Amino acid sequence: MRNVPTVLVLALLAGCGSSGGKPPVIQYAGGEPVLRVNDQPVSTALLDEVARGRGLDLANAEQRQRAIKELSDYVLLANLARKQGMEADPKFSATVEAQRLQGVANATMEYYARTHPITEDMLKAEYDAQLAKAGSESYDFSQLLFDNEADALKAGEEVLGGKDWTALYAEWQSKAKQAREFKDVRLVQLPAPELVAALKPLKVGDSTKVPVKSQYGWHLLHVSAIKPVTPPAFDAVRAELHKRMIARQGEQWMQKMRGEAVVVDLKAPKPAEPAAAQ
């Protein structure tokens, strides 16, 4: 059986894990009933949530029946779990509680996004910022990457001496850690800020005269072409931009809460003791 949609995690599983004065198996019954499973009424909201989670259209008869079958299966199994006292089993209860907490967390993040909408002005400002960051040009360049500074300096001295890059590249490509040509690369795609700073001032035909140090090693770069780039239209990237901004906003909110929380691992493994000296 597939994963249960968020609302059903809250409504069905939470009831199974309770003890004592047990709440009803379906704890969310808002709105008018749309189904009856044996004697259990099931609300329209729950059917809507199943359909939304599965991408089903309730106006389509075949898809509606699929949603009804899935929801009624959940209700039947939840009632069976209640009747057979499965909540007494620790593993069962832990599984239910973990899924309930995950459902609460997902619904909370969704609620936060819904109540803190990304406005059109925010989207356009982000679009402009991304365009400025990406730049309006792409680069064709070749790179010699060295894992030791001595070789990088030797090759750099040959560049300073005026040696042709093609000849230099051919001489050092078998000795370098990496020798590679790149096409249509925008500065925002480069993996290290040092490379961005090194490429920006270069013109077509220019090479770096001094090796550029990054976390990957020492680089010598040569630019063979700089081409204008036509950015995608705002409407073409709007949906993806909105998705990313929602995710970033949620993560920033979570980071704030994590920073204010105190989480203690009561069963953390103890670090291994150093071996005794021989």
Q: What features would you highlight for this structure?
A:
278 residues; 15% strand; Chitinase A, domain 3; alpha+beta
Describe this structure in words.
The chain is of the alpha+beta class. The protein is built from 9 helices and 6 strands; from the N terminus they run H-E-E-H-H-H-H-E-H-H-E-H-E-E-H. Among the domains are: 6-103, no CATH class; 137-228, Chitinase A, domain 3 (Roll), CATH 3.10.50. The longest helix is centred in the C-terminal third of the chain and has 27 residues, at 234-260. It starts with 5 loop residues before the first helix and ends in an 18-residue tail after the last helix.
By DSSP (H or I, 4+ residues per run), the number of helices equals 9
Radius of gyration: 30 Å
Shape: elongated
Strand order across the largest sheet: 4-3-6-5
Mean pLDDT: 90
Question: How much helicity do the residues have?
Answer: 40-55%
Question: What's the story with the biggest beta sheet?
Answer: 4 strands, antiparallel
Proportion of residues in extended strands? 15-25%
- Strand/helix succession: HEEHHHHEHHEHEEH
Note the gap between the termini: 58 Å
